[in-house]
Amino acid sequence: IRNPDDETQCSACPQGTLPNAERSQCLSIPEVYLRPDTGWAIGAMSFSTIGILLTFAVLGVFLQHNDTPVVRASGRELSYVLLSGILLCYMVSFLFVLRPTDIVCGVQQTAIGLCFSVVYAALFTKTNRIARIFRGGKKSAGRPGLISPKSQLVICGGLVTVQGLILLAWLWISPSVAKHVHPTREDNLLVCSS
């Protein structure tokens, strides 16, 4: 912009601003971030909504046939944990269309890892239980330990707790913050950065 004291001198506008047409003042560049009305956001939210509805449909089927041998044999409690983790994974995508703030960025940073850890902990616990049952059947006729539904939930909860503590430590050490990034002079991107 033109220097008000000396018409022959110019000064540069700070990052995130551009001069007006008269070159007399700096105007802010509008922030750019993923908004709910963009095509990418609508596509992601539509996919997530379908996933949420399908997850609720599967949950309804599980609840309707709760006492059948197939549902009981599949590990009813861990199946509900797995379905809740899948539901949370679909719901997290709605966080990404919010305007980035320090709080939203922190929730995004921890929610993704926590949701997936619920899913993977349930799958790991179910797989480990089946492996121990088959391995125990070869060694002795007795029932292996820690295969009751309650112990399976404790194991799964322990795994999720460890992941949660790691995520909280990561958030404490390197918090995610909303930050303006200017890849070019005309851009003003609002992104989450750690």
What does this structure look like?
There is one protein chain. The chain is mainly α. The protein has 2 domains: 1-30, no CATH class; 39-192, no CATH class. It is 57% helix and 8% strand. The strands form 2 sheets. A two-stranded antiparallel ribbon has the order 1-2. Strands 3-4 form a two-stranded antiparallel ribbon. β1 and β2 form a beta hairpin. α3 runs antiparallel to α4 (102-139) and α3 (76-92) packs parallel to α5. The two termini are 34 Å apart.
Quick recap:
57% of the residues lie in helices and 8% in strands. The protein has helices at 39-64, 69-73, 76-92, 102-139, 149-173; strands at residues 17-19, 26-28, 177-181, 189-193. Helix 1 packs antiparallel against helix 3 (76-92), helix 3 runs antiparallel to helix 4 (102-139) and helix 4 runs antiparallel to helix 5.
List the helices and strands and how they pair.
Layout (H helix, E strand, L loop, with lengths): L16 E3 L6 E3 L10 H26 L4 H5 L2 H17 L9 H38 L9 H25 L3 E5 L7 E5 L1
Antiparallel strand pairs: 1-2, 3-4
Membrane topology: Multi-pass membrane protein
Pfam family, one: 7tm_3
Organism: Daphnia magna
**Tell me about the biggest sheet?**
2 strands, antiparallel
The share of residues in extended strands comes to 5-15%
Shape: elongated
What is the mean predicted local confidence, pLDDT? 89
What structural category characterises the helix and strand content? mainly alpha
Low-confidence runs of at least 5 consecutive residues: none
Helix content: 55-70%
Number of strands: 4
Please tell me the total number of domains. 2
Distance between the termini: 34 Å
Q: What's the order of the H and E elements?
A: EEHHHHHEE
Radius of gyration: 26 Å
Question: Helical region count?
Answer: 5
Across the major sheet, the strand order is: 1-2
Protein name: Glutamate receptor, metabotropic
Transmembrane segments: 40-63, 78-98, 110-131, 152-173
Main location: membrane
Domain G-protein coupled receptors family 3 profile: 40-194
